[in-house]
Write a structure and sequence with these properties.
It is built from ten helices and 14 strands. A ten-stranded mixed beta sheet has the order 5-4-1-8-9-10-11-12-13-14, with helices on both faces. It is α/β, with parallel strands linked by helices.
């Protein structure tokens, strides 16, 4: 089982406009609501790709009740710690004419110390029957930013590999626990290292901390993979139009599945990136395994630098 630690879910509304104009009255052609957040998207993608995945998360208020009910309807197992603060609402604005996608993101709600302790206790219970750990997304205010570091340390004691997709202090503090894979985009890499570095330079810095491998995505530009003493670029197929929200989360799901399948790091990265591309157009981890395999075949071979 893939255990997804995603403490920052959201009630997501997706608004599709023929053409969105600033400072005008805009009428949406389509409005959709669904559970989201990086952890939810990752767990959803893993299950749609045929793997067993469960999420540990926080939910509160009426929005949290709605999210929990919809996750149940999706048959996405969610272990929920209830909070007094309502689950955040986020909005995606899609402009069909330009193809632009705009995200309006509410920051994760604050979590009380008593709820954090419940979360940690539940994690240890779930870890005992897990095969792989994914720590993904922002850590809510009020919680220790060492949460992921602490969880990966516990996973290491059980010999359970971990994938880390985090930002800033949460990312840096967890590196010392040597996660199997760190997945970041180029912007997150620069912010964490507090320096403008090329993907290759950033990977070298991350590997110095001892993590097993690093996958850096750069939108439609080639991705970068580093492990052992190798750094390679991965050329992607041409742009796919549509809503790409959740593509990075789908990459994490693909990495988890590939690592459990004992694939080489290079093949795991290619499959993961294929999952990320397959998500475009549907968004939020709503991809299919057939589509992921199709795009994996179209990803060019790795170039050794």
């Amino acid at each position: 089982m893939i255990l997804v630690v995603g403490p920052s879910p959201s009630y997501q509304r997706v608004w599709t406009f023929e053409h969105f104009k600033l400072d005008h009255v805009n009428r949406a052609q389509i409005v959709e609501a669904l559970p989201s957040g990086k952890g939810v998207n990752c767990a959803r993608a893993a299950r749609r790709l045929g793997s067993k995945a469960e999420i540990l998360t926080f939910l509160g208020g009426e929005t949290g009740e709605w999210v929990q009910q919809k996750l149940h309807e999706e048959d996405l197992p969610a272990h929920v710690i209830r909070t007094a603060v309502p689950t955040r609402s986020c909005h995606t604005l899609i402009d069909r004419l330009s193809g632009f996608v705009t995200e309006l993101v509410e920051e994760p709600c604050s979590v009380a110390s008593t709820d954090e302790q419940k979360y940690r206790t539940k994690f240890e219970e779930l870890l005992s029957r897990s095969d792989l750990l994914v720590c993904i997304g922002s850590i809510p205010r009020g919680m220790s930013q060492t949460l992921y570091r602490d969880f990966i340390r516990l996973a290491n004691k059980r010999g359970i590999p971990a994938i880390l997709d985090a930002q800033n202090d949460a990312l840096i503090s967890a590196l010392e626990m040597k996660p199997a894979v760190v997945k970041v985009n180029h912007r997150e890499l620069a912010e964490a290292l507090k320096a403008k570095l090329s993907p290759e330079q950033g990977i070298q810095e991350m590997l110095k901390h001892g993590c097993g491998s690093v996958l850096v995505t750069c939108g439609s530009e080639p991705a970068w993979l580093g492990w052992d003493e190798k750094i390679m670029s991965i050329s992607l197929p041409g742009m796919v139009s549509g809503n790409a929200t959740g593509s990075g989360d789908s990459v994490c799901a693909g990495l988890a599945i590939a690592l459990l399948g004992k694939r080489s790091m290079a093949d795991a990265a290619r499959y993961a990136l294929g999952c990320g591309i397959a998500n475009v157009g549907f968004g939020y981890g709503r991809l299919s395994d057939d589509s992921a395999r199709h795009w994996t075949k179209n990803i060019e071979r790795l170039s050794d630098l």
